[in-house]
Amino acid sequence: MVEKRKVVLVGTGFVGMSMAYALLNQGGVNELVLIDVAKEKAIGEAMDLSDGVPCSPARMVIRAGDYEECKDANIVVITAGIAQNPGQTRLDLLQTNAKIIKEITQNVVSSGFNGIFVIASNPVDILTYIVQKTSNFPTSKVIGSGTVLDTARLRFLLGEHLKVSSKNIHAYIMGEHGDSSFVPWSKSYVGCKPLMDIMKQRGEEDMLERVHQQVRDEAYEIIERKKATYYGIGLGLTKIIKAILNDEHEILTISTFLNGEYGKNDIYIGVPAIVNSQGVQEILQIDLTQEEQAKFDHSYEVLNELKNKVI
Ligand code: NAD
Fold it and tell me: Among the atoms of ligand 1, which is closest to the Cα of residue 103?
């Protein structure tokens, strides 16, 4: 491979390093630069990960670095953030993380970076909006991980229940990466058969909302048991990066900017969209039922209110 495929990761915590480990395992990136305020951590992570290179499918140069490394990167991934301190409200946390993300974006842009931003730090929809506004990059080149993880959880649970490979479950979680997300069940398929038809035949229509509830609760449950979630999102980020670097034109439920789609403007929110080497090629607008549109409207309201508190 002659072509240079360079990714810079800002934030070498659980999420960022799970992604880095997945990238090393899967191959396809030949340069990975790690940036963190905790510089020693970034250096240690680069050393540890590099030890795996001989056992990985392809050579990958991994090093800790600084923002000037972003200049010739294809993608900058942001997974930096701070956890909620005791007594700190969610809004305080949002304001702190918004400030961090703004500074990071300014540093990346100052380097002369001209690639694609991928953001996973939470609240991801709001922080992705802030990265786009701060960078002034085209909206197609600023992508949030959105409901990629939520959708993966949904497909996994449905696949397990139906005893069908999750690869053949075409169902999406849309809206906020958070409690107001929803599933457009009317547009969910197993292979080419509508999921609703299958559930009706099995007398299991009630089960659908329970599955969604389970997806929503899973993050809380994992955090309660092991303090953080990271493998799922690490692999989800890897999928987004590969869709960009391999020009996959893959449909992913990323957080992207709406400009009239679903009747909404000036918001980053999770919707199915086609991702390729240029970033977001196109939003795949689907016909929602009235009930589904009402759920979308609610999720938009939740995000818009939060956005107006920090912008
Ligand atoms: P973590 O605490 O393990 O890692 C965060 C890292 O960011 C730390 O290494 C910290 O030093 C670094 N950091 C903080 N401020 C920085 C700055 N100004 N510049 C550079 N680096 C900085 O946290 P984590 O578990 O890896 O989670 C990271 C983020 O990902 C959180 O916001 C979390 O909520 C989010 N997350 C998102 C999803 C999703 O689906 N989008 C899923 C899980 C977690």
Answer: 18
CATH of domain 6-144: 3.40.50.720
Task: Give the model's pLDDT for residue 1.
Answer: 52
3-state secondary structure (DSSP) of residue 81? coil
d(CA 301, CA 306): 9
Overall average pLDDT of the 224-238 stretch: 95
The CATH number of the structural domain formed by 148-310 is 3.90.110.10
Nearest CA to ligand 1 atom 20: 36
The closest-lying atom of ligand 1 relative to the alpha carbon of residue 42 is: 9
Enumerate residues 6+ apart whose C-beta is below 8 A from 260.
Answer: none
Nearest CA residue ID for atom 18, ligand 1:
100
Pocket test for ligand 1, best of 41, 67, 76, 82 (most atoms within 8 A of CB): 82
Active site members: 177
Quickly state the pLDDT bin for 89 (edges 50, 70, 90): confident
Q: What are the sequence ranges of the domains in the chain?
A: 6-144, 148-310
